[in-house]
Write a structure and sequence with these properties.
about 350 residues, alpha/beta, 6-stranded parallel sheet, 5-stranded parallel sheet, globular
Length: about 350
């Protein structure tokens, strides 16, 4: 399948310039990918091309973005390279087109499947899309895994995670593991009882190190500014984050951590032993039962038990790898193939009827 991914200029996720996969490589894409690594693995797995179009739609995510970071619009307009208008994209070259937010209005009459994610699950359009995808789209990809599990018809919503590519991740980030634990910065702000990174969160690092008896690494500085936007952008930050994370034998994301729980999947793809929160959907799918916590109180007990048992560590890693391959590679690929088959079948029936 040939895949294209499209975003609008006022969007921090994904690369900040259009790119064709054949002219790039997994590692090369980091040169135009500042900030969060969300969707990087999916891009590498699908060998997807990216197109950036001018701003089309202002949604809840964009309002939140500019409220939390007033310089966001200026920074994005300064550094994001817009190359094509929507009508200039060669849709006929692709089997699947995936957009970040429902930003396309007039899709051509092709057998191509048009699908979209919503960047934030709290966006009012998310619940609306679960009932029915936006006009002209075939699929709404519900990254919170709260949609139907199977493709029955088009258009429809379907549970669909941000896909993973463990083999590619480990081929690039292959440094030896250290007896160190990476802690999600939001776990540390939970301990500090604050929303953003602060001096109190820094103090929480030392307290948790003492409890776990192990050095801690984190990306707390990312939380100082909304969505991690800075001027100039943090070019190479996604690569640096994954490199540092890959060296940590353990990963913790427990506490008031919102969203699906993508950070834990980053760590699992890199082969770290992951401790997660029962309330987070990706954590429930990927983390071994002995590593899932109902709350912060359970964490030290479960952490010490795993650290003390090499056999349990192997069991945890095998569990995580099976979960990634089944739920974040094989199943979503099957969904895309089924949707494409259904779209083509519908197109052929229309031609026969005509």
């Amino acid at each position: 399948m040939r895949i294209a991914m499209i975003k609008q200029a006022l969007d921090v996720f994904g690369p900040w310039a259009s790119m064709e996969w054949d002219d790039s490589s997994p590692k090369k894409t980091f040169q135009i990918w500042p900030g969060k690594a969300t969707l990087w693995e999916m891009t590498a797995l699908l060998k997807a091309d990216w197109y950036i179009i001018p701003a089309q739609v202002i949604g809840d995510y964009h309002l939140d973005l500019t409220e939390k970071n007033p310089q966001a619009r200026e920074v994005l307009s300064k550094y994001v390279k817009v190359t094509l208008a929507p009508e200039q994209i060669p849709y006929h070259n692709y089997d699947i087109v995936i957009t970040l937010d429902p930003i396309l209005r007039n899709m051509p009459n092709l057998d191509t499947v048009f699908a979209y994610f919503l960047n934030e699950h709290w966006d009012v359009r998310y619940k609306r899309s679960l009932r029915r995808p936006s006009d002209h789209y075939d699929l709404f990809l519900a990254h919170m895994m709260d949609g139907p599990n199977e493709i029955v018809t088009l258009p429809q919503a379907v549970s669909f995670p941000y896909m993973r590519a463990p083999e590619i991740m480990r081929s690039i980030f292959n440094a030896p593991k250290e007896e160190v634990v990476w802690v999600d910065w939001r776990t540390l702000t939970t301990l500090a009882m604050t929303d953003l990174w602060s001096e109190a969160a820094e103090q929480a690092v030392q307290r948790l190190q003492n409890v776990l008896n192990m050095p801690i690494r984190h990306a707390g500085e990312f939380g100082r500014c909304g969505y991690g936007i800075s001027d100039p952008p943090r070019w190479g930050d996604a690569e640096s984050y994954l490199d540092h994370l890959s060296r940590c034998k353990y990963y913790i994301s427990v506490g008031q951590v919102p969203g699906a729980g993508q950070g834990l999947c980053d760590a699992a793809s890199l082969g770290s032993i992951c401790f997660g929160q029962q309330a987070n959907v990706y954590h429930r799918i990927v983390a071994h039962p002995d590593c899932l916590c109902a709350d912060m109180v359970e964490l030290p007990i479960k952490f010490r038990r795993v650290v003390a048992s090499p056999d349990l560590q192997k069991e945890v890693l095998n569990w995580q790898d099976r979960a990634l391959k089944e739920h974040f590679v094989a199943r979503p690929l099957s969904i895309l193939e089924q949707a494409l088959e259904l779209k083509r079948k519908r197109g052929n029936l229309a031609k026969v009827s005509y």
